[in-house]
Amino acid sequence: MVSGTALVYDDEMTRHKLLWEDPICAIEIPERLSSCYENLKRYNLVERCLFVPVREGTEDEIMLVHSPDYLEVVKNTQKMTEEELRKTSTNYDAVFFHLTTYRCAKLAVGATLELVDAVMSGTTRNGMALVRPPGHHSQRNAANGFCVFNNVAIAAKYAQRKYGVQRILIVDWDVHHGQGIQYIFEEDPSVLYFSWHRFEHQQYWPSLRESDYDAVGQGKGAGSNINVPWNKVGMKNSDYLAVFLHVLLPMAFEFDPELVVVSAGYDSGIGDPEGQMSATPECFAHLTHFLMHLAKGKLCVVLEGGYHLRSLSESVCMTIKTLLGDPLPSLSGEMVPCLSALESMHNVRAAHKLYWKCLLYEDLTPLKDLSTKSCQLGQGEAVQTGTTLVNQQESGKTNRDEAAKTDEFLEQHMKEILSLEPPVRTVVAEGNGDSLPPSVQNEKNVDTEELKAVVRGFAADLVKEENVLNALVNMLAILEKIVKKKVTSGLVVSPEASLSSALALKHCHDLRLQKILCIFAGDMDMKIDSDDGKVLLINIGNKPSEQPNTKYNISLNWKEDAERSTFFSALLGFVLPVAYSYQPDLTVIAVGSNQTLGTTGIALLVSLLQGLAQCRILAVIQDTEAQLLEDIAKPMMGDMTPCFGTCSPALQKNIQMVKELREQLQQEWKMLRCSV
Ligand code: X5A
Ligand code: ZN
């Protein structure tokens, strides 16, 4: 298992700066880089990373993407007068050159390639490069939008050449469309490019027709370019999450990349003057966490935009904390995607239906393009809650006020979310887990009368057997550790998994936890009264359920053995949206006999559920399934799951079942929606 996180940075990249008045370029300042690094130091994250020095990208490396003529133009800026620099800058849209630009742009390329080397060689599992100038707008023959060399596109070509990487996923979460990357890989099926971007029906910069959802790639590359246009500002955590769950991740798992590179712009975060969006810093932790499940964790995050210094630097810290494996804070805000986001999601899914098996049975009626007017404020949409920060104001004074308000909001918000979070990822296991990773603590022979009394109070007649009593007491001891945040997660093997789970839920109630997400896999015999919303039960079993599904008691029953693709679509398209909508305080996973998820399925389930409930999970495993212990413990410790391979299409009837459930419950659980 490869571990560790690389951090590539050099403050020399702060030398590139704007020398004259230019209101458009004025936001791309050196402090963008230094403030990120300062904040990383403040959170003690720098010393936890493997620090990788930068180098210059070579001319050959730059020419993997750019023309010799363009390289020459940039090279010549090294010895220009200010007047000439100014003149050269005006040849491009939203670009400035400085005497050090060529040097810094070469360092930005080299830093990105050093990151690729660290990850591809297995020196670290993942990492981040903090670079300036950014790259995703630059093109073969042109600088554009503050970008000089296309760092991420060069990195992808480099990884293909040097390491023979067959499939690369580029995720561009910057708020602008990385049209440069799109142009470079448009016809290349080996690079899947995903970008979401402020678009406003083509009114927003760079106002290109080809930034819309129907630009799906060309020729052999058809289907390998995914554009999600944002036609409104104010997109929030739930909108970003919905697009990941319903658009990017199904396609990404199907694509099965060998490397993931992120064009990580944080101008899509709250307070940014360019983006005008509302996503809070922990949203980037969740986006990062999802991407860590692809390509065996090989994830290279490369800075692009981000112009609100506090928002930028907090979001960068959240990204790096997540790369390091820290527990994720819960995603805040109302979990309801807005109508405009749903419309974009519908359109992009419809545009890609022909190219992806995961969309094969989706009911994607002809593209809808509601006019801007008809999709103005739907229910919940006027409430860009939590902040009155989002407001398209033009005056400079108001912008400064808005920025200061975001500063204040973030100060408070980060304190809150980070104080809730358990400090480190720890797993404690009950009893005789011989096969467990050594980092898992062991809880043995807890012997408290208090807990025994709890057990007797629960089911006196059932606990005559010593081993059952012990298992229940140990489970309670572990549960209390999780609730008190002494550990993040716990594992229990039980001769009576149903009984153990029922007691766990009851005890959670006594400990005043408000909402418990309880996931069952395999045969479990449990009657739980969950109508009051304190428990949400999702049963992923084989047995057809006797009761009809209700908001808090849901059964997913495969018709036959589930293929991997059925499981993916159920997990991404159903379980996670419901779980994120519910926002639980704890997750209980109960595994009975005859579970059909397989070891990789269970591991993926456990791993992805760590995005909920501040990472707090209790797994209760029936003793006959004890061989699963290790597969569950590993993802709890932050080990990524084994690779899945690409998917065959799922059985239509299974997909149908998931689809029907989604339709039935999308009024109750709004994150299930992916269409208008
Ligand atoms: C990298 C980046 C934005 C350019 C905006 C020009 N560029 N109006 O965020
Ligand atoms: Zn940007």
UniProtKB/TrEMBL annotation:
<comment type="similarity">
    <text>Belongs to the histone deacetylase family. HD type 2 subfamily.</text>
</comment>
<keyword id="KW-0539">Nucleus</keyword>
<dbReference type="GO" id="GO:0019213">
    <property type="term" value="F:deacetylase activity"/>
</dbReference>
<dbReference type="GO" id="GO:0016787">
    <property type="term" value="F:hydrolase activity"/>
</dbReference>
<dbReference type="GO" id="GO:0005634">
    <property type="term" value="C:nucleus"/>
</dbReference>
<dbReference type="InterPro" id="IPR037138">
    <property type="entry name" value="His_deacetylse_dom_sf"/>
</dbReference>
<feature type="domain" description="Histone deacetylase">
    <location>
        <begin position="28"/>
        <end position="322"/>
    </location>
</feature>
<dbReference type="Pfam" id="PF00850">
    <property type="entry name" value="Hist_deacetyl"/>
</dbReference>
<dbReference type="GO" id="GO:0040029">
    <property type="term" value="P:epigenetic regulation of gene expression"/>
</dbReference>
<protein>
    <submittedName>
        <fullName>Polyamine deacetylase HDAC10</fullName>
    </submittedName>
</protein>
<keyword id="KW-0378">Hydrolase</keyword>
<dbReference type="InterPro" id="IPR023696">
    <property type="entry name" value="Ureohydrolase_dom_sf"/>
</dbReference>
<dbReference type="InterPro" id="IPR023801">
    <property type="entry name" value="His_deacetylse_dom"/>
</dbReference>
<dbReference type="InterPro" id="IPR000286">
    <property type="entry name" value="HDACs"/>
</dbReference>
